[in-house]
Design goal:
Helix content: 25-40%
Structural class: alpha+beta
Radius of gyration: 18 Å
Strand content: 15-25%
Order of helices and strands: HHHEEEE
Shape: flat
Number of helices: 3
Oligomer: single chain
Length: 133
């Protein structure tokens, strides 16, 4: 299953086009496992485990970091959506990512699409103006 999930995520093919020659099972079964493992927190736990191994081996470089986000339109809405400031107020989400100097992801979160240009976990008043770039 893991092989099929990684193949689809890496190549971007549709689940139903997962080649049977890989021996990973059907695309739909792989998709269900991805969904179930995501809901069970398996990926988050795996990420934390890998980061702790990298920290223990002193392989993380915190001398620099990069933070970026992208806006994704949410056609079906959901709990982490908000009116988009760039898409006529339609529901959307922002995916935020921070990586260390070598590009290793340290954290990723999703917020509503109407979130301002400040740190997504900033507890400051929501009415506060966005930080200038």
């Amino acid at each position: 299953m893991l092989c099929g999930i990684l193949f689809v995520l890496y190549t971007g093919i549709r689940w139903e086009f997962l080649p049977q020659e890989l021996g990973c099972g059907s695309g739909m079964t792989c998709w269900r496992r991805l969904r179930d493992w995501n809901e069970a927190g398996v990926w988050q736990h795996l990420h934390e485990l890998l980061l702790s191994e990298l920290r223990a081996a002193d392989l993380l470089d915190f001398s620099r970091a990069a933070v970026d986000s992208s806006h994704i339109r949410a056609m079906k809405g959901g709990p982490a959506t908000g009116p988009s400031p760039v898409d006529w107020g339609k529901a959307g989400s922002k995916h935020h990512l921070i990586v260390e100097a070598h590009g290793i992801p340290l954290a990723a979160i999703t917020t509503g699409g109407n979130r301002g240009r400040r740190h997504p976990t900033d507890p400051a008043d929501p009415g506060r103006p966005a930080d200038p770039r």
